Amino acid sequence: MTAAARARERAAGAKKLRQFITPEGVDLELKIASSSMRLGALLIDAGLIIVTLILFTLLMIWTGIASRSSVVISIWMLGAFVLRNFWFIGFELGQRAATPGKRMMGIRVVARDGGRLTADAVVARNLIRELEVFLPLTMLGLGAAEDMVSGWTILAGVAWSLTLSLFLLFNRDRMRMGDLIAGTWVVMAQRAKLDSDIAASGETAGTLRFTDAELSVYGIFELQELERVLRGRDARAMREVADAIRVKIGRPVAEEDESFLLSYYPQLKARLERKLLFGKRREDKYASD
């Protein structure tokens, strides 16, 4: 690869980087997911939804034959509605903020303001999908029944809906209309979980020890953000995070930032895991311990 080609590649990658300010005031750079990756995730989710719907339909047919009741038709319609509308909402409200399709493509949803992804934002971005995806499909379906809707009406509806669907192709942040309204981004996610590399580094980083009071100020959300910083190995981000933690726990700067974080991370993780054993789950620093 020539120097010019490498320069173009770096410039293209830089265009996808966005500043993400965490609740601690730390500036992290996240990479915007491409439209092709988002399309791939949508197709995977659509396939899984169809497979699930087929299995649910077979179950309802078997139940209907066995019970000889017409109620199963209403149950099927309700189940299909819930599956279509809450597949995306339910998974994105989870800890990983990603549907199975997004997880397979290595992308996830984040709030653009740097805070926790809220239920309101998740619901808003996914309800708009009705206009972006399912309405065009409905319009096409109605095309088979020309006596119900005129062809021009169907064509106008499909064109309007596809305009919403293709909105992400015409903005630099690759946002759907739902992302714009909900204040979200879809970004590249770390596929790998925390494993022995960080834990082992923490064991050899030094003999720093933290008291229970120093560890009790943070919860699971901050632990995940700290993991992301450690995996990124960005010196500036680690310095800002380390300084934020030191200020929070009242500890002076007396060691390298990386050694400090690699010592703090496994001890915080161990404390939270002990709490979980006793049924105590602290989501973030704002929750009571």
Notes on the structure:
The chain is built from 13 helices and four strands. The protein is mainly α and 289 residues long. The strands form two sheets. Strands 1-2 form a two-stranded antiparallel sheet. A two-stranded antiparallel sheet has the order 3-4. The longest helix has 33 residues, at 35-67.
Key words describing this protein structure:
13 helices, 4 strands, two-stranded antiparallel ribbon, mainly alpha, single chain, two-stranded antiparallel sheet, 289 residues
Class by SSE composition: mainly alpha
Query: What is the helix fraction of residues, given as a range?
Result: 55-70%
Average pLDDT taken over every residue: 76
User: Which range does the strand content fall in?
Assistant: 5-15%
Strand order in space, largest sheet = 1-2
Low-confidence stretches: 3-9, 191-195
